[in-house]
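This part of the workshop introduces the protein records we will be handling. An example says more than a description, so a record of this kind follows:
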Amino acid sequence: MSLSELRVFGRSGTPISPLTLGTMNFGEGPGGASGGGLTSAAPTGADESIRIIQSALDAGITAVDTADVYSQGESEQVVGRALRGRRDDVFLATKFHGQMSPNPAHSGNSRRWIMQAVEGSLRRLQTDRIDLYQAHRPDYNTDVLETITALNDLIRQGKILYYGTSVFTPAQLVEAQWLATTNHLIPPVANQVPYSMLVRGNERDVLPIAQQYGLGVLAYGPLAGGWLSGEFVLDAGQPPTRVHSLPGRYDISGPSSERKLLAADSLARLADKLEISLVDLSIGFALNHPAVSSVIIGPRTEAHLQAYLKAADTLLSEPVLDAIDELVPPGTNFVERDAGAVVPSLEYAELRRR
């Protein structure tokens, strides 16, 4: 596999590069007010971000993924500046849902907000259309039919070309397809999911459903949010990575995290045995799943980008994939939150009790 070997993005027929440039780390604005862990302060300033984006495009990456909530619009602005003169060569994806101001009405998946949110994204991205417009998270207060009807209308208006979802449950994915078909609407063509050697829960149902309906899959978090960066190994102590902001996912002292740490350490040892980097092993694994159209990488620096680009050439043999399966069985998630979101019925006790 190399960046020149484009993959077809689901049933859309659109060829995109096997790596997609994720831009959550780009911009200079503060973290957003989503309340759902969708955003944080970006560590990479605008000028360096633009250089990284252009370097990625020069290297052969053809897809860029962002979101309105990343640094409260700053990421989209940076992407818009970076794509001047190159817009037609890029498959451009962004998202809506996260809260974009202190006003809670400026969020969600309602028609009212979608129609406002898309105008803001178009303006910040300096473009007349968005190639893939994604619901960043499910909205349990809005009927799915309202959401997909609004998105269908945006396609008819030419403001978006395709629409998709992110971390929707298996039931929600099937419901969206059924509602679109029965109401004579254009159905979603994509789903964005976390997928890595340490986050394999989507192998149970989400990825097979994507294959069944011909959905393009953008797989994010191939390094499991830093757990496969090489910092999380036995006897190394607590790495500083996000431990204060997301202790439930990064505190290595919890029972689930202890098992996850052991797995991360074992995978690092496997990479050493193969004489490749853990990044190479991680990207090679995520790219190998037949449902995955493209793997989202999220570099903070040019050096990070170059490491990801090198990893795109990694091909893993059947014995290596078997060894990974022995260390982390297929379908495994160590922490519920690793799935990208916790469904309300698990998060709120009152929904499980009379």
